[in-house]
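Could you join me in thinking about how sequence relates to backbone shape in a protein? Would you write everything just below, so we can both look at the same thing?
***
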Amino acid sequence: MLPFWIALQFLSSLPVRLPGMPEPEQLGRSLLFYPLVGLLFGALLWLLNALLLGTPPLLHAALLLTAWVLLSGGLHLDGLADSADAWLGGFGDRERTLLIMKDPRSGPIAVITLVLVLLLKFTALLALIEQGQGVMLIIVPVLGRGALLGLFLSTPYVRAGGLGQALADHLPRRAGWQVLVAVALGCVWVAGWVGISALIIAVVIFVGLRQMMLRRLGGCTGDTAGALLELLEMVVLVGLVLI
């Protein structure tokens, strides 16, 4: 189960301690457990949602969103901020875009993007709470982390060396596709037609964002992977409210 603990340590702020530096093969296999980490997040959010029943809706949604962000430690929001700055400041140039992503500072575009994404996520959560669609709290985190697995399965990693390269090089491909099929079937089993709708929205957003990465960078980075997760989760939540 070491690959699961690696995935949990990397994707969450939960107090997980590994016995030592993992082997590259273990890092690659940890990607297979990303959807399981999403399922754990979803279960915790669903439980929190149940405990907050009767709380004023605005506070209810705000607490859920806060827990959602804290669980991941803001990891993917950081990637979204870096990607937003780089996409605008890169002016279509690959090397300039990659260089800006490495800058730890956040510009106004990053701040605006984070505010808008969190605002949309908050209002969508509020609407889903009022509609009694708490099951979406389980499905959406799974889809978001399943998208990370799908990205590494289907898209070149463009930064040589480092953790992301080890993940991409040692990911078991066949097992990865099997996990994605299981994720899709699980969403349908848990939520029926709503789960199918969530899957369709997620696939459309995944394909669109992946194409943007390929056109600009020729592949993905850790920052664009984080941006993909945050944008996909947000759009799925909003889409489920609107349909």
Notes: Residues 63 and 195 are 24 Å apart (CA to CA). Residues 173-217 form the longest helix (45 residues). The chain has a mean pLDDT of 93. The two ends are 39 Å apart (CA to CA).
